[in-house]
Design a protein that fits this description.
Layout: H1 2-17, E1 25-26, E2 35-38, E3 51-52, E4 56-61, E5 67-71, E6 95-96, E7 100-103, E8 109-113, E9 127-132, E10 138-142, H2 152-155, H3 174-178, E11 202-205, E12 211-215, E13 221-227, E14 232-237, E15 242-247, E16 253-257, E17 267-272, E18 278-282, E19 287-291, E20 297-302, E21 315-318, E22 324-329, E23 334-339, E24 345-349, E25 362-367, E26 373-377, E27 383-389
Parallel strand pairs: 3-6
Antiparallel strand pairs: 1-24, 2-27, 4-5, 5-7, 7-8, 9-10, 10-11, 11-12, 13-14, 14-15, 15-16, 17-18, 18-19, 19-20, 21-22, 22-23, 23-24, 25-26, 26-27
Amino acid sequence: MKRTLTIVASVAALCVAAGGGLLAQRSGGAQAPKLEVDPLWPKPFPVAKHWILGSVTGVAADAQDRVWVVHRGVDSLQNNEKGPTLEPWASSCCFAAPQILAFDASGSLVGTWEVAADKGYEWPHDPSGIAIDKAGNVYVGSGLAPSALPPPAARGRGPAPEGAAAAGGARGRGEAAAGRGDAAPAGRGRGAAAAPPAGTVVLKFDKTGKYLSAIRDLDRPLAVAVDDTANEVYVADDGHGRIAVFDANSGTLKREWKANGQPFKTITCVAIAKDGMVYVCDRGNNRIQVFAKDGKFVKEAFVSKETKGDGSVWDVAFSPDQRQLYVADGHDKKVWILDRTSLDTVGSFGEGGRYPGQFYGVGSIAVDSKGNVYTGETYEGKRVQKFVKR
């Protein structure tokens, strides 16, 4: 018996040392896929630029398996993370990376662009959610979901938590002021044509960062999904408690719907399956609701139903064969794996921590064509990770 316990303890220690190893675990029902964290993904940013990610609020994989990331930039960094932006100068590290980045499957940075207010749009203070259409156009939402985190005074340090009112104030000088890479954007509002207030729009860009259009009159649009077959854009319009569907070209509202039964309580995702079913994250109610494209309710399921605080259902993504549904649970600090047909939970991976394969505030998730899973961590997590399907 003693020898058995020693062996078990040794194996457990090895798993912890490896950052979790094969992280997916079957918990009943259909077999969950096996995923292993790649601890060296993505590759480091150029040292000369001293870039660092802020709180990640969106991750998406495009048709070429490029992984797109949006983050909150300098406004989400602690003072000890943005030394060059402070006066007096504090350290050589770090500048916030550009707020839109693209990586290839190997983790190489293959694209970035700077945001600016003199190009016909107002970049949101709190970008949230990102989606890519078949033409490579990029859609970015705005606004932050409410948070159960205590106010900064209670935490004793740092900026206001996500969901709290954004405080004004100086952001530094020059590149430091922008905090978004090696080029400082122009002053906000200058030269912008009818710029809408932040938190009320979904912005559309081409893959080079050229501004194309905006969907307006929203309230905290926290997530976006594109239906290429119908040329429609689905928006999780949290402030209005609805899913709103727009024409992708004109931005005209075509239809909308609200929750079935109990109202939505923080809508943090919308995703469209290949069979046309629309999945909605009702984060605060710990549930997923499924609808037809016309808004007809189909079914619902609860995930970690007893979760309190910020809730359990933050974002979802489908496996390539559409058999599994991955659910990012930032409060419980793990990813749940559901059978998409039954919505039964069949496994999970991850746990709270800073090592590879662990999570803090995992709020975004995407899957590429090979079944590899990508996650983004908000709050103080501030990173993206890749889990390789084995």
